[in-house]
């Protein structure tokens, strides 16, 4: 039992750095080490049983990186910019893939727990996983295929312009037809 008390005291000492925990302890009258352990246990239970884990993963994957991205914008250093730009590409990749394979994700056990662990690895300053991914894999891949990517984007831009023009013309034709139909209906009502 002394070992447990000793570990709790060590944890309490580490948590003393965070004023928000001191305030939570004052408000709830629950020691901050128990608040943190309880929160961690609740998080673990939610992760294991998958209750709200998709939303929680998205929230964790967004809040801290958004704040750090804002800080990176305000600094003159380029290193943190790379870290956060690559992180957002990774985050967007997960978000887009999940839209299309949402039904399949239900059958992958602990998908969101793995995603959360991956996003934490990618975002945390201790690991700088996003920067590692960029320097190890993406940088060479993108440089090697830069002309192909530029060509694909140019084709997409050209095609989307013609699609937008065709869509606009079709919408205009429909609107004109609808207006003339309404107009002739109103004229028929006046005649009768």
From TrEMBL:
Keywords: Membrane, Transmembrane, Transmembrane helix
Protein name listed in UniProt: Protein YOP1
Keyword Phosphoprotein: no
Topology within the bilayer: Multi-pass membrane protein
Pfam families from the UniProt entry: TB2_DP1_HVA22
Main location (coarse class): membrane
PANTHER family according to UniProt: HVA22-LIKE PROTEINS, RECEPTOR EXPRESSION-ENHANCING PROTEIN
Keyword check for Isomerase: no
TM region positions: 41-64, 84-101, 107-124
Cellular component GO terms held in the UniProt record: membrane
UniProt family annotation: Belongs to the DP1 family.
Subcellular location: Membrane
């Amino acid at each position: 039992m002394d070992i447990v008390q000793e570990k709790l005291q060590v944890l309490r000492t580490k948590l003393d750095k965070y004023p928000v925990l001191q305030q939570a302890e004052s408000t709830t009258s629950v020691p901050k080490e128990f608040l943190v352990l309880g929160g961690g246990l609740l998080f673990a239970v939610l992760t294991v049983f998958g209750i709200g884990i998709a939303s929680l993963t998205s929230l964790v994957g967004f809040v801290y990186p958004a704040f750090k991205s804002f800080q990176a914008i305000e600094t003159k250093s380029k290193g943190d910019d790379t870290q956060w730009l690559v992180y957002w590409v990774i985050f967007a990749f997960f978000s887009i893939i999940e839209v299309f394979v949402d039904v399949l994700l239900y059958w992958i056990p602990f998908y969101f727990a793995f995603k959360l662990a991956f996003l934490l690895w990618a975002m945390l300053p201790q690991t700088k996983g996003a920067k590692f991914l960029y320097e190890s894999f993406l940088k060479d891949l993108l440089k090697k295929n830069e002309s192909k990517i530029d060509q694909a984007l140019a084709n997409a831009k050209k095609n989307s312009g013609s699609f937008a023009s065709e869509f606009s013309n079709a919408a205009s034709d429909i609107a004109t037809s609808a207006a003339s139909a309404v107009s002739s209906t109103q004229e028929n009502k006046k005649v009768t």
